[in-house]
Every structure is written in structure tokens, then in C-alpha cells.
């Protein structure tokens, strides 16, 4: 089985061909292709982690859609002072499908 560890959106993700991965927003339109930098490549028993070898590895993915994550509710409260504050946040995300690891 071939899979790679890629850097995407400040995090590392384990991907193989055909996987759907949700990343932080990538500046690309739906249907376009992006390239993700590989940090590790596993091909059966062979593990590649040298930077010189990984420079030749290309992990390409197709942007499926741009979406927003679930709402996170932020509440602040201080006892006996009457202070209450409520805010919400939804992160901007991109769903991609890995098309090839070469």
C-alpha cells in the first residue's frame, strides 16, 4: 500500500490515492488541482524520508469544494459582575480528493 504524510494547512495528514481530506482553506476554485508537499512516503516496505528524495515526490489533489466548518460557541462569564459575552466562529475549510502520488 502506498501512502504519504503531507503538510496541509499547518498540520500533517496521512493520505493515499482516492482519499477525501478536509484542510484549512486553500486559495483554489472547485475542480482545480493543487500540489501538497510530502514529508514521508511509504511504498510497501520502503520508507522514504530524505529531503532530497522527497523533492521528486508529487502528491496532487483535486479541490472538491470550499466549505465552512461547524460553529464553535465561545462564552465568557465573570461571576458577580454581570459580565457575559457570547461569540461564534466557523472556520473556512477546503475538501480535496487525492488523485496521485508519484
TrEMBL record:
This protein binds to 23S rRNA in the presence of protein L20. One of its GO terms (biological process) is translation. Part of the 50S ribosomal subunit. Contacts protein L20. The keyword Plastid does not apply. Keywords: Ribonucleoprotein, Ribosomal protein, RNA-binding, rRNA-binding. InterPro entries: bL21-like (IPR028909), bL21-like_sf (IPR036164), Ribosomal_bL21 (IPR001787). GO terms for molecular function: rRNA binding; structural constituent of ribosome. It holds the Pfam family Ribosomal_L21p. The keyword RNA-binding applies. This is Large ribosomal subunit protein bL21. Belongs to the bacterial ribosomal protein bL21 family. One of its GO terms (cellular component) is ribonucleoprotein complex.
Amino acid at each position: 500500500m502506498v501512502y504519504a504524510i503531507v503538510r496541509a494547512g499547518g498540520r500533517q495528514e496521512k493520505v493515499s490515492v482516492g482519499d477525501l481530506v478536509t484542510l484549512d482553506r486553500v486559495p483554489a476554485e472547485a475542480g482545480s488541482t493543487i500540489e501538497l508537499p510530502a514529508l514521508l512516503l511509504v511504498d510497501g516496505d520502503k520508507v522514504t524520508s530524505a529531503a532530497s528524495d522527497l523533492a521528486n515526490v508529487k502528491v496532487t489533489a483535486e479541490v472538491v469544494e470550499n466549505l465552512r466548518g461547524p460553529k464553535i460557541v465561545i462564552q465568557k462569564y465573570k461571576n458577580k459582575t454581570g459580565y457575559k459575552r457570547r461569540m461564534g466562529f466557523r472556520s473556512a475549510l477546503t475538501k480535496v480528493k487525492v488523485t496521485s502520488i508519484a
